[in-house]
Amino acid sequence: MRLSHLALTHVRSFEHLDMDFEPGVHVVYGENGSGKTNLLEAIALLSTARRARAGRDGELISWTALAEDPLPAAQLSARIDGAAGSTTLDITVMTRAVRDAGTASTEPPAASRRFRVNGVARRASDLIGRLRTVLFSVDDVGLVDGAPAARRRFLDVTISQLEPLYVRALQRYGRVLVQRNSLLKRLQERRGDAGELDFWDQEAATAGAVLVRARAELLSRLDELASDSHRDLSTKGEQLRIAYEPALPDDLREGLCEPGLDSRLAAMFRATRPLDIRRAMTLHGPHRDDIAMLLDGHAAGSFASRGEQRTLALALRLGEVALSRERTGDAPVLLLDDVLSELDVRRRARVVAAAYEVDQVFITTPDEDRPRIEELPGARRYALEGGTLTPR
Q1: In a domain, 12, yes or no
Q2: How much is the pLDDT for 101?
Q3: The model's pTM
Q4: What is the CA radius of gyration of the chain?
């Protein structure tokens, strides 16, 4: 799989970009703030239909378009070549209302998104996974020592690229959760009938079972693959373990991949209603899941050094690459956002080796001399300045 063409219009620092890319390694260098991260995040957005960082969609639209266009919009387009042929993907992000002339705001406007696959209007779920990517970032250490939400996002982005049914279940579960919590709030205020929860409990259980089962299966295999990568990267020989921590009562944590999980989850939601009503929120379910990351049996987020956490995060991403190839028979596109400069020689060599195990990789760096030419023989190099990408 490879990205053969990329076009960006009014996307953050890129007013206009239109480039063809061959298979192999592509190194993009430029000063900090030149838009290197914007480039890789645009590619990732075409892969996952989700922003790599939290924020409003309006932030994707360039300030020039926001200031000058009556209906500003950002356009992202790509052509993907794979074993099944070529596919074109398009995402349009536009503001919902005309900005009044002469007004200025530091806040991005509310925006909506439209998706097309091969020129035909589609839902986001139909676009996700057509281009599979793995994004390495210096922020990945947050997967180890950050909040559970970051680890759930990692799970959702990874599985969504591999399982279309997961995407739809995730969207459905999110909508159901909003409705259930709204009803719980009314019941707390003694408005409404608790019997109204029957429908939402079953809906949450049906969608939630898809999420829980997929997460349990993925993490069981990722534990093995990431542990193998960690042994190659670590200099101390620590044992890495990754385990799923579902936000379920103890008696439901076994047999997550066995038939009947949806029925057991529905029973759980019914049993926890009194406490949920008192708290006016759903206290159990995949929206509160987490991942345990252990080094020699100790929680890595609390006890590992910064360097050990960075190595763990890198092993996790390398395991994700191997898992994507294993599940699909086709390697993902690697996106390495200024990570090589953070690594020592040994770990940098391991990442470079991974780059040559896939069809295509994009590497950003602030230094045009690093990584050195001899480290990445045959790599194509580009200078990024003023929103312009120039082959060198």
Answers
A1: no
A2: 45
A3: 0.90
A4: 22
